[in-house]
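Table 4 source record.
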Amino acid sequence: MLELRGVTKKFDDNTVLDNINLEVETGSIVSILGPSGCGKTTLLNVILGLTELTSGQIIYDGEDLTHVPMKKRGFNIVFQDFALFPNLNAYENIVYGLRNNPTASTPEEVRDLIDLLDLKKHLKKRIDELSGGQKQRVAIARTLVMKPRLLLLDEPLSALDGMIKESIKERIKTVARQFNLTTIIVTHDPEEALSLSDKVLILNGGHVSQYADPRTIVHAPSNTFIRDFILRQLQIKRDNIFRLFDGSAPQGSTLMASA
């Protein structure tokens, strides 16, 4: 379990995160959602260890990681722009981290992961020959071969659209379930958060506005900000969201864009 206790981050006199308390169950998918400037990326960086806390604690499986360097936390991140090496092909990108830690995954485990993410036919391609969805899957595979204790995803669907986006959603869910991998996703899109996650953390001005399962957020928003934010951002998509959580769509079904 990941626990955040009184997490606060200030940059000079600007409080970006204010007393964040959070528990994330092992193996669950949690999205961090909110408008631009609410502290989403800062919270992700604090968990990763890229940004130091002003005050508070980060606990993982009972271990205090607050002052543990990023490289020793055992967490890993897939960045929004994939950050793949253009001079290496897809396979070389996937196994790149094994150069310094060859025992992290066996060859069989690497092959199984490639099959899981349906990348076998793309392994010899240059990065510029891959589609956006293929690049995203390569980036996820490169992270997973290192067997992170916690997977962080920064806007993983923002560069994708249509069926590619839906496919990556399902891949993320499959990976989290199969590896019992705690997964935290930053997104600005309520539809993505509500359709992908077990729980959603909604931030507003560095504060937690609500932390609950998607059904509760849709049917029982804790304040007017959440209600207005969700409805305004979803626009024509909101009908699909409500159908999913009012029982008129099958449980666990994937939302499709209505446009």
